[in-house]
Amino acid sequence: MLKFYNLQSCGYCRMVRDKLDELGLEYERIEVPPYPRDRKEVFDVSGQFYVPVLVDGEVVLDDEEKILDYLENTYAQGKE
Question: Is 0.70 topped by the overall pTM?
Fold first, then answer.
């Protein structure tokens, strides 16, 4: 299952949430603390403190544009 590290007030995270919902994908949403320095789990997964971060098996993406491209190229095929 996809894991999505999210901050509710983050506009970039909202873009990813909208794409995940548009594609009908199930995912585990992990709410992160508001202060980057407190996001140890995000750092452990991605090597940096910022969100959004998406984990799909061995694939770890830490930029909304990369995540959106990945979701479109990996999961949108055949949904048109």
Answer: yes
